[in-house]
Amino acid sequence: MSAIQERSDHQRHEGEEGSNLAKQLSDTITVTIGATVPTGFERTAAEEVNEKIGADARISKDRGRIYFEITTENLPLIHHLKSVDNLFVVVEEYTNYQFKDQKEEALEDFQSLASKLPWTNPLEVWRLNNSLKKKRWRRKGGNGGKARASGKDRVEAVTAETENLQLESGTPERGSGEPEGDPAFNGTQGELDKNTEEQEEGSVDPLLKFRVTCNRAGDKHTFTSNEAARDFGGAVQDFFLWKPDMTKFDVEVLLNIHNNEMVIGIALTEESLHRRNITHFGPTTLRSTLAYGMLRLCKPQVSDVIIDPMCGTGAIPLEGAIEWQHSFYLAGDNNDMAVSRTVNNINHIHKKRRDKGSTAWGLPINALQWDLCRLPLRTGSVDIIITDMPFGKRMGSRKKNWDLYPSCLREMARVCRAGTGKAVLLTQDKKCFAKAVSKMGGLWCKVVTVWVNIGGLHAGVYHLKRTGAPFGTTPEDVREPRGDNETAGGAKED
Ligand SMILES: C[S@@+](CC[C@H](N)C(=O)[O-])C[C@H]1O[C@@H](n2cnc3c(N)ncnc32)[C@H](O)[C@@H]1O
Asked: What is the mean pLDDT of residues 390-400?
């Protein structure tokens, strides 16, 4: 067969496959989609769902989750959401499940549950979602290097991840030195595609591999998440005759238990979507999903000048430059390694776009090394300042923050446009931050504070508004001595 013929056969196949998929999507099923989101940003995520999908999202009692209904024709839209970490399709939801007081009885209930659940539509959505991912990521392939589990017995293959949701949402997003990876659908994608291809239309392959992941929060349960996952997983295996596999699974069944609430779902994402933009990670790289939430708080407008003066790996300005392209972003850090990571991350995205044949102009972002306490910027030249400050744990120290925070706020107030400028600042050093802001009452006023969970730490995202007072006219402008690092530049201008 000639190369041209091969190509045209391939194109025809792709076309047929595309129209098959379109047909399947339009054979409407309505399902509930669940999404895990950065805790504290549930409302922001619900707004985004409404804006992009037109659905009203429910915010779960169990923080960090939202739920919304969609029809299958809208299924592709869920992958446009930027504030969600993981997506799943809900199989069944119990708002007041009566877990038995005796452990054995409670576990027996898990065993009998599997065969009673309405699996058909959620599994159809899982299958459609795989076809979507396959189309989207066709050229990527690979299985993310995950090893095949050697143990075949069901107890080994059924896993429980966390005992407590607080712990789960505290996964090491700061400082985990995460591996380079594909932004959204890597992991076992190659294998997943293979299995999807092998499936008969409308049927579920009995040779599928699966695992159950249980997240449990609440102190009234007589069972552990491991036990729940094991017993429920055993029953799922018996019901579908799927093969348990802890590491190289096709289907991930989720068992989320929060006090008396229980949600059973099927995962639609293999790994959290928060890694999407970053390839060069630093010690405190922020989740892109959280960066998105922070950016949404300050509503970037066309031609706004937006700076992240402590950019680290550039997670915030990169997310901004991709999602709000009509603003201009400056990313700076006083650490040269941080600046070069940001530059590498920007270049990587440029390259990826070029490789895909994009002729679009580059991202509206620049990176440079600077000291936040003396920014090389004109007074009143910035519309939005958005940054993730050193918490004083992994980065900097609590002691240094007492000097750094007031200096930061003062210099930020200088460069920020009086009257209209905004700042969205993330820190866990709440006491120090509150003190610094209260000293700067003439320059900044608080709009709202969103409480978030960053790697298990309770932190605040402070949305501040620059007062109308011109810089240099309030007592707050006067710089206090900072010892060796005293930076007088930019303290009083004009
Ligand atoms: C919490 S990290 C920011 C992490 C970043 N959001 C990311 O996603 O990688 C804080 C950053 O502030 C920087 N920093 C500390 N003091 C600074 C100063 N005076 N001027 C500029 N950057 C500073 C540190 O080098 C560090 O990269």
From this structure: 74
